[in-house]
Amino acid sequence: MNRYPLWKSLLFAGVMLLALVLALPNVFGEAPALQLSRKDGELFKDSAAAQRFVDVLAAGNVKPDTAYVQDGRVILRFGDVPEQLKARDLIEASQPGAFAIATTFASRAPSWVRAVGLKPMSLGLDLRGGIYLVYQVDVDGAVKQTLQRLERDYRLALREKRIPYESVDGSAGAIVVTLKDGSNPEDARAALAAVDPNVTLAVTGASIRATLSDVQVKQRQDFAIQQNITALGNRVNALGVSEASVQRQGADRIAVQLPGVQDASEVIRLLGKTATLEFRMVDQTGNPIEAQQTGRAPLGTKLYKERRTNRPVLLKREVIVSGEQLTDATSTFQQGEPAVSIRLDARGGEEMLRTTRENLGKPMAVVFIERERQLREQNGEKVAVDVTREEVINVATIRGVFSNQFQITGLTSREGQELAKLLRAGALAAPVYIVEQRLIGPSLGQENIDRGVRALLIGSGLLFLFMIVYYSAFGLVADIVLICNVVLLTACLSLFGAALTLPGIAGIMLTVGMAVDANILIYERIREELRNGNSPHAAIKAGFEKAFSAIFDANVTTAIAGVVLFLFGTGPIKGFAVVLTIGIATTLFTAVVGSRTIVGLIWGRRSQIRRLPV
Amino acid sequence: MEILHKVPRIRFMAQRKIAYVLSALIVIGSIAAEAVNGLNLAVDFTGGVVIEANYAKAADLDATRAALNSAGYHEAQVQIFGSSRDVLVRLPPLGANDSANAVTAKIEATLRTVDSGVQIRRTEVVGPQVGKELVYKGMQAMAITVLLILVYIAFRFRWKFGVGAVLATLHDPFVVVGVFAITGMTFDLSVLAAVLAVIGYSINETVVVFDRVRELFPVMRKEQPIEVFDRAINETLSRTLITKFATLIVVVALYAFGGETLRGFGLALIVGILAVTYSSMYVASGVALDLGSSHRDLMPSERRAPVDDLP
């Protein structure tokens, strides 16, 4: 008799059952879907919300396959892409500007699968198509900004305390304050320390040197990256892309993944820009065309161009309200026309109230100021330069008195949406620029899936055939074990929420190739034992036992390579490493415990075996 | 079915000196090929721009080159990628003033003049700094992998085995990289991943042979170490051949059916597996043998006599 301990067999059966359930969602595939979220930041709560959209669509003769609420967002799944796009237009038209509508993919799995929280593996960018961006954060620039701010504050503090000084210079990585004769350095030091007690101050004679400690520099840099991640995250969210990710990469980089997004230039423009607004009164006395010709604006005015018409406009120099006072901006529709609804803080509201009261019936302009950081070569050195573009996007007559809440009209729907997004996103903390940009088209993604799956099927099909030809019944056992291995691996990847990439598919194939090795080691050992004249039962037992040390050591060393790959790799290498490492664990389990269970099940109960089909 | 009905008695270790010379030639040849041909490093490592475009009809490469040249991209490389309609355009890293977007948009427009139905399937823009870091990280990963494996083998077997395993392991990437240098195939990130997988695979192989050596030493007390090694290799030979064949089936399928993106990966693994088979038999065992592995190394250690002359 050659039974495998019952508890081990049960363990294997239990694990495989669980794995089957976890891997199940992957079987159903995906279909085009819409993901809706409310622009006001509120969440959708119950299925009634989803039903409302179904009703809206029913009016337009579009019927989603399914509609449900997940994480506060409504998911609507459709049969094909034309349906999906038609539905998007219907929803946008029903309540224009109220929802962020993202085109995405949703699993075809039945609702109970979703209800118990099972999710399929997500597809990586190379399989789904999309944009991958790596931003370099200019951390030194962030530190410089801190020094500049400190420099300003020091001047202010010294003036307030009436301490005469020669100069405050922050150009050389530290701030040097040179005092005038007669100033008490101790008083000055105290005044400076009050500004920021954490800055190191060194007094030598009449000058004080302020330096940031290493810890402070590090903190400032980390903060800059965190703030950028938040800002980029906000902007990415504003794009309404599902499954988007913004992650820190290494010391000073941020990687952004936008699956399914295709318009790279648009996205990059939106992510990398900072924008603000200024509200100014239009000057009605001067002649803008004359000013444009002479290149000279009359006193107290400034010459601008209108964005769409390219006409010159003269605006008064005084700014009524500027971007910092803006608290919210959303794109809406007003009387069927696209509009951007704007909210101001209390001070901005006061200013606006005063201005509108005094200038009823007069035109007011909205100036859009956009800053883009570009790298320029200057004396052979790369210098980041801010490029500012100022233009009038809207001139409207003040029709009523308003304060902290009002609308800008006269934009196209698209312009309105973009403007609202940019205004909401706020300013970036430290300059960023793109060091890596990859775009994968959707057709290439689908092709990669098709090819990867085809290679997987052909490769494993041939391998399965070979094993049966070579090891007959035991070969079949090996094939079953290999299938168990792939199921278990899929289950683990789904459980960890790992994204499947093309190198990942290659990793699965390599796992299959290496898992077969464990089986071959065991079977060759069994054959050897049989040749040495052992009984079939003894041969099975010895085969498994003696092959174990080789299987174990071989897999541990490969696992070492896998883990190092994971720790040092980025992007595709990481995806490969994850699959390889998890694959080794599942291989060890299925080849050792699984094989033994199945072999025990078939041959273990027989008291006599005449010939072992190996 | 069985390919080797009896355990063969090939005297592998007698030929190990020839194998050393061959290995030395391979490594030198690989380095020479890299020095002469250079590796066709992908944009992942060099930085630069890659644009994959799908033409509506068979691509006219000369017209494409001419169009790009007149658009100011004199250094553009244009090649067929997969089918005759797929074209790959490569540019050196962008200058500081170029925006990645503007360049890819301009190239798209230029390609459109050659074939109005062109579709951009993929664009990659990588800064030169990113590439340099990748090379550095790849090297670092390789070094750490090798070091950790050395420690593990030394711990599970003996240090002599560890040295043999590491030398065999270092040998294999040379073969793969050499083949890429000679064929001029693009060496990209996924090929690097394949090379690192080959390292893991190589160790895997070596361990199987060493495991058998470890098992045979106690039962072959009378024989010379060289005979133990030979017997271990011979006894595992049938498994080695079958496993290699089985894995090759899978990897060749990747190479042949996985599409252009997986072709390099597949080739690296095919070459790697062949190299691994050779190096695990000859290099790893040979070095372990020549370092003087003997029965004493792998016998259960004798219990030390109690220390009794301490104060």
Itemize the secondary structure elements and their pairings.
The complex is a heterodimer of chains A (614) and B (311).
Chain A: H1 6-23, E1 30-38, H2 47-59, E2 66-70, E3 73-77, H3 81-94, E4 99-107, H4 111-115, E5 122-123, H5 125-128, E6 130-137, H6 139-160, E7 165-169, E8 175-179, H7 185-195, E9 200-204, E10 207-211, H8 214-239, E11 245-249, E12 253-259, H9 264-272, E13 274-282, H10 288-294, E14 301-305, E15 312-322, E16 326-334, E17 337-344, H11 346-358, E18 363-378, E19 381-397, E20 405-409, H12 413-425, E21 432-440, H13 442-495, E22 499-500, H14 502-531, H15 536-568, H16 571-603
Parallel strand pairs in A: 5-22
Antiparallel strand pairs in A: 1-3, 1-4, 2-3, 6-12, 6-21, 7-8, 8-10, 9-10, 11-12, 13-15, 13-18, 14-15, 16-17, 17-20, 18-19
Chain B: H1 16-36, E1 40-41, H2 43-46, E2 48-54, H3 61-70, E3 77-81, E4 83-91, H4 100-114, E5 119-126, H5 128-156, H6 159-183, E6 186-187, H7 189-219, H8 225-257, H9 260-290, H10 295-298
Parallel strand pairs in B: 1-6
Antiparallel strand pairs in B: 2-4, 2-5, 3-4
Helix pairs in contact in B: 1-6, 1-9, 3-4, 5-6, 5-7, 6-7, 6-9, 7-8, 7-9, 8-9
